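Hi R.,

Here's the chain you asked about this morning:
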Amino acid sequence: MKKRVLSFILCICLAVSLLTVMTSAAAAVFADVKSSDYFATSVNWAVDKGITVGTSSTAFSPNSTCTRAQILTFMWRAAGSPEPDPKIVNFYVDIKESDYFYKASLWAREKGVHVPSDEYFRPDTPCTRASTVEYFWRLAGAEIGNIVPFSDIDHGSTLENAVSWAVTNGITAGTGGTAFTPDTVCTRAQIVTFLYRYYVAPIDNSALIETLKETVPVTALKLDPLPPEDYLKQPDWYGHLTSPADMTDERLMAELKQIRDVMADFRARDIYIGDAIYARELDLHSQASRRGLE
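And here is the predicted structure, written out as tokens:
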């Protein structure tokens, strides 16, 4: 009987010891991660899942800037390091097959997580809070739900949809008051924390959401007028084409009106409209029709 009791006590002690080791694993592996750090659990999880191995055998560099190559590689590994579709051909001129992020870059393009604007991947581009939430939002299917307003996020923008989704789903919160600070560059610690919340333990932002809805006025969407001659150079007022499917109804109809005004202006002045503008108008009109907006 005494042997059984002793064995039971030993099992309990072993289990407690094992839990303690798991909790402080990151601190033990990386000299720059303390068990009391807010990101320690996230780093430990990321290392355990093979999402990151740190910047050296003893350093994680939590406060270092996270680059585009790093975040997309982390996301790719967290998704199970899937092989990219063979149909996705590398057209990036600044990466090669031997780069650690090569497969991650192709996977991100295949899944629509990273939407390139040209033939450059730019792996060392610092990852901002804006680009981070857009990556996660697209990975999750780019759902458009209830708007969570921030004072520094343009109403009606694609970014507003991404931020609203990320806050609603507990991936991140604001940075204080009514601010989201979209242009702030993310650290490696913050990115693995976002990943941990996405896959394991989202935070509860319900109180924050209610506060923001009560204190941040949602103003009517206004478009900055574009000179018609510049329309092809900058067909979207945020400097890049946004898929009509990702737009709110308000923004969709606003751009549709804008492009039709440009077309009318071109016709009045006998200026060649061009296939690109016709195609954009058709895309916007098709999406509006599917939503029953016209």
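One quick note: Residues 228-290 form one domain.

Cheers,
M.
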